[in-house]
Amino acid sequence: MAVIEARGLGLTFQTGDGPVHALTDVNLAIEKGDFVTFIGPSGCGKTTFLRVAADLEQPTAGTITVNGMSPDEARRNRAYGYVFQAAGLFPWRSIERNIRLPLEIMGYGRDEARERTTRVLELVELTGFEKKYPWQLSGGMQQRASIARALAFDADILLMDEPFGALDEIVRDKLNEQLLALWARTGKTIGFVTHSIPEAVYLSTRIVVMSPRPGRVTDVIESPLPQERPLHIRESHDFLEIAARVRDGLRAGIGDDI
């Protein structure tokens, strides 16, 4: 059974200027342990798909299941963690208290919350920064803290909405390496949104290419790259070949609309 499965999924927003078709007839299955990246032009429904899976938006057509449940049931069962584009840390709470917040809301005991917080800080290589405040950390470190917060209650699925988009290329490369290492250690299933072709190819087991509105899946590319991926793999023939296919798919989807 797929961890996330969409069948004929559609979502149309009703606005004062008429309907906006964000997603249409999306069919996709994400298997356990996959690292699936969604790429496409702005407004193509990448983030919308993640938000529907997370029960933050309601589909208007078709179905989607998460761990065999509806998104609402999956949310109630804490099936996933969600990382937004901005770190969204509270400036008046220390890093450890930011990470502990969802555990407090869920009613975890103090000792277990402390143990989980310590473990995820180690996972994202922030041990020693737990007493710092967000404004004392770099943008990359803040985003790692955001990832730790999403991992704190140990959900099997991690949904990540362009978490590194605002960071410079050097920091982004480092976080890409760290995210792959974290994925290898934890075995999480990851859904990841990006606008970057190199990032999509470097991270993914599968790349979902989407068209402009109405958002459709135009290609699903299986990656032949090994699980262990040093940064210099981006110079390899296989990497460049996949990147070219993604680029061609994006160009074909956009067509003459620009």
Provide a compact summary of the structure.
This protein is of the alpha/beta class. The chain is 37% helix and 24% strand.
What does this structure look like?
The protein has 258 residues and is α/β, with parallel strands linked by helices. It has two domains: 1-79 and 163-258, Rossmann fold (3-Layer(aba) Sandwich), CATH 3.40.50; 86-154, no CATH class. It is 37% helix and 24% strand. It is built from eight helices and nine strands. It has helices at residues 46-53, 71-76, 95-106, 110-123, 139-151, 169-186, 197-203, 237-254; strands at residues 4-15, 18-30, 35-39, 61-66, 80-83, 157-161, 189-194, 206-210, 217-222. The strands form two sheets. Strands 5-6-7-3-8-9 form a six-stranded mixed β-sheet, sandwiched between helices. The protein has a three-stranded antiparallel β-sheet with strand order 2-1-4. It is globular and about 50 Å long. The mean pLDDT is 91.
Total helices: the number is: 8
**Rough shape?**
globular
In the predicted model, the low-confidence regions spanning at least 5 consecutive residues are none
Q: Care to count the β-strands?
A: 9
Helix content: 25-40%
Spatial separation of the terminal alpha carbons: 40 Å
**The CATH H-level homologous superfamily of the largest domain:** P-loop containing nucleotide triphosphate hydrolases
Based on the structure, what is the oligomeric state of the protein chains?
Answer: single chain
CATH class of the largest domain: Alpha Beta
